[in-house]
Amino acid sequence: xxxxxxxxxxxxxxxxxxxxxxxxxxxxxxxxxxxxxxxxxxxxxxxxxxxxxxxxxxxxxxxxxxxxxxxxxxxxxxxxxxxxxxxxxxxxxxxxxxxxxxxxxxxxxxxxxxxxxxxxxxxxxxxxxxxxxxxxxxxxxxxxxxxxxxxxxxxxxxxxxxxxxxxxxxxxxxxxxxxxxxxxxxxxxxxxxxxxxxxxxxxxxxxxxxxxxxxxxxxxxxxxxxxxxxxxxxxxxxxxxxxxxxxxxxxxxxxxxxxxxxxxxxxxxxxxxxxxxxxxxxxxxxxxxxxxxxxxxxxxxxxxxxxxxxxxxxxxxxxxxxxxxxx
Length: 327
Hints:
The protein is globular, with a radius of gyration of 19 Å. The chain is built from twelve helices and ten strands. It has a five-stranded mixed beta sheet, with helices on both faces. Strands 7-6-8-5-9 form a five-stranded mixed beta sheet, with helices on both faces. The longest helix has 20 residues, at 247-266. By secondary structure, the chain is an alpha/beta fold. β1, α2 (56-64) and β2 form a beta-alpha-beta unit.
């Protein structure tokens, strides 16, 4: 398995940012004179997200006024993955962030002061019908997860839930995950990289999954389904400092996000349409996308499985404290 200094350098940076934030001043998001607050009693909060289907409820909730009703305005900033968002939240660049469950566990286990405030997204739990999958290009000789041995597989960031679950898919199919070479690539760059033969396979989520399939690519593993039923894939979080200093803002964000998750679950057509506002997916492929589940609460049993897999594959120096991390 390919391992770079990049992951460990990023973790060290997060820990340093955590220490800096702990000594810093109070956030200015409630100061009406600051750019982080609206001029009419509306507080603007900055949220770090990824341009994928997972975060559609936030964009939809903003459009439907769920946040505005509670005096909040969201300002979304996109990043390649959750691991890159964690430092932004801890340093105060973002008030809230969206990150995959594994990256949050890694952060918590290394002493980074983060805490989940709302559920994010879950797998559908259906093999071959999930919003995330391992895919190969049209005509590829790779037919199953075991075939990934000795191959180059793209994930959006190294050492996150996607690498971890692909490793489990390979293991469950009788292969050796240590023989897989993982490379880092943004989701929206994966379809072209597959077509050009720069990678052998890619772990994609919607809308990149629909794009690959539209190009004739095929799915060879449902990696987010293999580890546990209805896997909690990602969640929204804040720094513990922000929670302590702004409990009222956190409660408003939690309530608006809960309403947004529920609304997205029952309005799939609006989810597909809102995607065109923050991704490059062609309208012609919208109806072909598989939407994830947006349950109200994290699935603790599935997170316990992820924690065990992280230990097995050496992602944690010490076990994450899920009781401290979860709401």
